[in-house]
Amino acid sequence: MAALSSLLPSTPGLLPKWLLLVSLISIGNSLQAYLSLGPTQRVYSGPSPPSSKKPTTTTSPVTPLSARTFGTWTFLSAVIRLYAAYHPHNKQVYEIAFATYAIAWAHFVSEWWVFRSTRWGAGLAGPVMVASSSLVWMWCQWGWYVGA
């Protein structure tokens, strides 16, 4: 257990540990995006079917190329957030990590509300909730980690 503890960010507070956790999960999601279309298709599930019909086939617009692009984008965000987990007092790193969540939130919400490439469900709820809660948490803790 001591070996595991030594790998955790040493900065006080739960936010650095949260950033680490989200980064590790995102790295796993990136690998999944390269290995299978399924996880990315759950996020980008396609437009909602008419209420009277259940979808019989996937309406997801995900292609192998778009899944790999999503995986690469997710990996890049994970690296930035991983760095922020260990350097939360660095103002520029904190701001860039915050920006990754803002960009992710804007992306997922616009794909849902504007472009209609997805619909609300388990696949979309996870990324939206993580981005939303991380944005609020980082905003509230801004002064604690990087000052005013």
Explain this structure:
- It is found in: Endoplasmic reticulum membrane.
- This protein has one domain (13-49, 56-146).
- It contains 6 helices and no strands.
- It has helices at residues 2-7, 15-35, 38-43, 64-86, 91-113, 122-146.
- Helix 2 (15-35) runs antiparallel to helix 4.
- The radius of gyration is 17 Å and the shape is elongated.
Q: Layout of helices and strands, plus pairs?
A:
Blueprint: H1 2-7, H2 15-35, H3 38-43, H4 64-86, H5 91-113, H6 122-146
Helix pairs in contact: 2-4, 4-5, 5-6
Main location: endoplasmic reticulum
Signal peptide: 1-30
Organism: Sporormia fimetaria CBS 119925
Distance between the termini: 36 Å
Number of discrete helical segments:
6
Along the chain, the helix and strand elements come as: HHHHHH
Number of domains: 1
Got a strand count? 0
Radius of gyration: 17 Å
- Please estimate the helix content: over 70%
Hey, roughly how much beta strand do the residues contain?
Answer: under 5%
Q: Mind summarizing the main beta sheet? A: none
Q: Averaged pLDDT, please?
A: 93
Low-pLDDT parts are: none
InterPro entries: Erg28 (IPR005352)
Subcellular location: Endoplasmic reticulum membrane
Protein name: Erg28-like protein
GO molecular function: protein-macromolecule adaptor activity
Q: Which tags fit this structure?
A:
elongated, 148 residues, mainly alpha
Short note summarizing the structure:
With 148 residues, the chain is mainly α.
